[in-house]
Amino acid sequence: MTQLAADRQAAALVNETIAFELNAAAAHFDRQGQPNVAQALRQQAATLLADASRLRSEAEEPTHGNTMKTNSTELRVEDEPAVPKVILDRLKNLGFSVLAAGAYACVTSLLV
Question: Per the confidence metrics, is the pTM higher than 0.85?
Fold first, then answer.
């Protein structure tokens, strides 16, 4: 699982947890005789659950490393030496073949 997919799964779990809490709060407001507040909370919970479903679906979609069939190469040059290191690590995690080209540049190529 890529980091992006893991992040989407985590965000979906957070949304589901908040939706659960909103529904519990809605039940409280129903008992207190405030159905308008309860309904608003349930609508927010439904929105979060829909978003969680979308995030889970996107997390299951193939990543670029699994679907793209290309042999393109890209050169990235940065004026801050730490930035290419971050870019290299992220692209490697996404399935790209990455070559460091000095302290300020990295070359990426997707070879599937």
Answer: no
HSE-up of residue 85 (Cα within 13 Å, Cβ side): 4
pLDDT in tens, 7-44: 888 888 888 998 999 999 999 999 999 999 999 999 99
At residue 101, the 3 state secondary structure works out as coil
Q: Which domain holds residue 28?
A: 3-61
- The edge-to-edge listing of strands for the beta sheet with 73-77 is 73-77, 105-109, 97-100
Q: How many domains does the chain have?
A: 2
- Name which of 79, 80, 72 is nearest 91 in CA terms: 72
Are 106 and 98 in contact by the 8 Å Cβ rule? The answer is yes
Same domain for 39 and 83? no
Q: Is 103 helix (H, G, I), strand (E, B) or coil?
A: coil
